[in-house]
Amino acid sequence: MSNRIRPYAWGSRTALAELLGEPTPSAHPQAELWIGAHPGDPSRLVGSGSSAGSAPQSLVDRIAGDPAGQLGSEAVDQFGTRLPFLLKVLAAAEPLSLQAHPTMEQAKAGFAAEERAGIDINAAGRNYKDASHKPELICALTEFHALCGFRDPQQTVQLLAELGCPELERYLGLLSGQPDENGTRALFSSIISMPSAALDPLLDAVLAACVRRVKDGSEFSAEYRTTLELGERYPGDPGVLAALLMNRVTLQPDQALYLGAGNLHAYLSGTGVEIMANSDNVLRGGLTPKHVDVPELMRVLDFSVGPVPVINPVPDGPGVWRYPTPAKEFALSKLLPDDAPDGVLLDHSGPQVVLVTAGTAQLHGAAAAPLTVPKGRTAWIPADESGVRITGAATVFLATDGL
Ligand SMILES: [Zn+2]
Which residue ranges does the record assign to the Phosphomannose isomerase type I catalytic domain (predicted)? Predict the structure, then answer.
């Protein structure tokens, strides 16, 4: 496959170039490598199989020409005639926006309502680009930092109180008076909809308090430091204050984070393999110059208290580590083919995408010669190509549907 890179300003100038074996630093930020059949930037098929010697073909066109053969009848029955997932390598040098994704029901209703209202699909104020939910899983390739979900309100009360910031008192009262889901909702809601005249002086006071606490040393130093970094990057943005209510998470390589509907999150820095349902439905809550629709965000947000959804890979046969999630649209596994005596058989009956992140892998399929897939490269295995085996001293990510 030949894949496109999205050059968003928060992207790294080294991570994707290094993965792809290109000179570093790259001339422009490289944020996301898109691997799949999203109409915005579909992968193209080059080289092997039926397209050998012919011009590269968009994966969108390949699938449209034979949905059942490419995706398998089960996936077509469940998700229609498009690839249900999008795989990415994401390389963040700077924080991404604070965001959440809708449930399937919210997406269907929101999309229908915006269509009825005649809002252009590309309009800046458009929330729902399609009628699908967008669960996502990010698996760390390097140490990876993120904000994910709301912290236990009792702890947030402690964290805010420790700032010793008088300007924050009345807001802190919203949470200390009811340290639960409702208190979190009330406090977040007042932060996110605060007019600049109130927000700007409050932000100044909170950031000054963060500087003092980081200097003195505090059990919340990492959280305060993150707030300072966000304040520098997004002056006057309510997301800087909202970040104080959220879990600050550090993933070690191979650990993953599952982001279900309603989970407020922001990636801060690091490189990871990301897989998601093939949707573009994002409701932003700040840390962005883009459109923020507060009422719609409040409707989809989940304020419940629960553990941070860190997923550790579980062994699933020789050389195979699976990331268990409830998503039906996708499944992600990490393969170490050399750890299995005969490599790993890729016997899933739906669409399969192979991404090599270290070493070199060989794919043994129907063709006489194996296909060599070096680091940074990817391969598409259609549903009707059964019995492909992968070997080699390589680290490989395997993306399939979750059926
Ligand atoms: Zn997201």
Answer: 3-151
